[in-house]
Write a structure and sequence with these properties.
205 residues; eight-stranded mixed sheet; 6 helices
Length: 205
Amino acid sequence: MDKLKNSGFYKLRFFITPEEFKSLLQLLEHRQVQFYRTNSARTEHDYNQVYETYQTFYQYYVAGEKKNDVHPFFVYSISVASDEESSGFFVRNEDISFPYHGQWAEDELPCIMLSFPKGFQVDLEDEKGKYYIYEDIRDHKPLTYALFNEIRDSIKKITKLLRFSAHDADAMKEQKPSVRISQDAMNELSQSWIFSKYGLVIHGK
């Protein structure tokens, strides 16, 4: 049995301003989703706490000076429950590496990754014993998949692919991460300490 079928995740990586992020939260609030920290206690955060956590994460990277005493993170499991089905997404910050004079820079650019599994585990049993397969999540959780698409489309409407140049071994080289960024976030990030420190040049300003 092919367990790799329907494996993996639907993903979207992005970087937007806190105000733009707030519009996403409003979209989720209408669906009454819940946010949980990924600690052992699964601490629930309300929308204001989620917004403040994102704002802290965002401000660290767009600030004019680096704060050495803090390195914020943004990690949540998002629970989507309704009368018809219950499922969820996962959202966490990721780092975008870039070259700096022949090696990787010690600092990295930020993004947020939203992910949703492609497979739904189905437990089966035959004469050899128990086993499982992954079936298409869209068949089992169509409402959650539709919400994921709605969020993804909302982000895509206000963003474009991040393109910037960095100092490679002997010349400036264009970087093409699979990350989407909004115009306002691009403007602020281009004035940040990390762009200044490494002489990065944003494209499409």
